[in-house]
Amino acid sequence: MEEYRRIADRVEAAVRDGRLRPGDRLPPQRVFARRHGIANSTAIRVYGELARRGLVVGEVGRGTFVRAAPPLPGPALVEASGAAPVDLQLNYPVVDGQQERMARALTALARPGVLTGALARPAAADGTPEARDAAVTVLAGPGWAPDPGSVLFAGSGRRAVAAALSALVPPGGRLGVEELTYPPLRAVAERLGIRLVPLALDAEGVRPEALAAAHRAAPLAAAYLQPTLHNPLAATAGDERRDALAELLRRLDLTAVEDATWAFLDPGAPAPLAARAPERVVLVDSLSKRLAPGLTVGYLVVPGRLRAAVAEALRSGAWTADGFALAAATRWAGDGTVAETVAAKRADAAARHALVLRRLAGQALRTSPHAYFCWWELPAPWRAETFAAAAAARAGVAVTPGSAFAAAPGAAPGAVRVGLASPPHAVLDAALARLAALAAAGPG
Questions:
Q1: Are 325 and 295 in contact (CB under 8 A)?
Q2: Distance between CA atoms of 277 and 406, rounded to whole angstroms?
């Protein structure tokens, strides 16, 4: 094993056993080299390896800081705060009675004749007429309902995004994307060989002039946008902004992938881009947030000119829905399970939003009463990575540093995203109180 990796292993061991704690600052590389009797070039490789493993983060002008130990197999241990770790990174909402409602449809599917049909073969990209009609009931909103013939199915929302991008953007092509965006998009783009082009944001999301300027600089193959309850900013574009974007897509002869994954939480949001420029927009959505990620289906509403290409991308990428999941989703849409659960989650999101406003009063927050997350611009002198590390170590709470959402490599917004959906209300309330106390106490 090369020397720099052996030294990195020793530093990792110190992180794992608590000798180095999240938020601790490592010495400058030259000092580290002297202490270990190695060349400066070797120390640089050690620090690079630690960053690659996700153990440290470098902050310009401040140094290199320990993030956290990689997860170990088995249950997580109690943190230094004395409280069980609270995960405000994952964001999967579950409401009372949800499992019972979902179980009704699964019980019906368990009958031998029905089960045989659901498991006999993989689902086709376009599902069945019944599945397409059910999808329309899930996706429709005020002022818009998709044509059932435009609906295709994926195994999840992420697979739906991958299929849409695979069909729209060739390897090496440029994809315009919000400068803060859905984190898995970066991994999808990397696997497909797509170059992300960050687009400037304001309070309503992507600025049309930013999209136009990026396309003028070098043609974009497509754009990826979240007009409703943008993740992580919780921003929602108004009618004028959406009309401007739709007109711009037409003028530039550009297609957008509209991610509507969280849009179900805001029943008063304007009609989607897909309603304003149906020939220029592929809308993607899923059941993972409406119901549960363990048995889910992704939806695509696709313009006719792109239907064959997107269907082929779904098939060739093995991104189509499972037959059983599609059968379950069809029943959940038809028996009222989706509608009942969505209504409960809208009320639940509003209640959790109220906890945030109470516990983080006076903080610089970007959120919405319809959102299951908030974007917290941290008070000085906190930096996002060190706050996230300290939150885990000192408060027993996991939050996501802003860099995870940055479309541009190396960007480090001074903010964290706080996911609100997963813990019980009392646990969330206590976790938010601990985060507020940590922010007030400072890095220490």
A1: yes
A2: 28
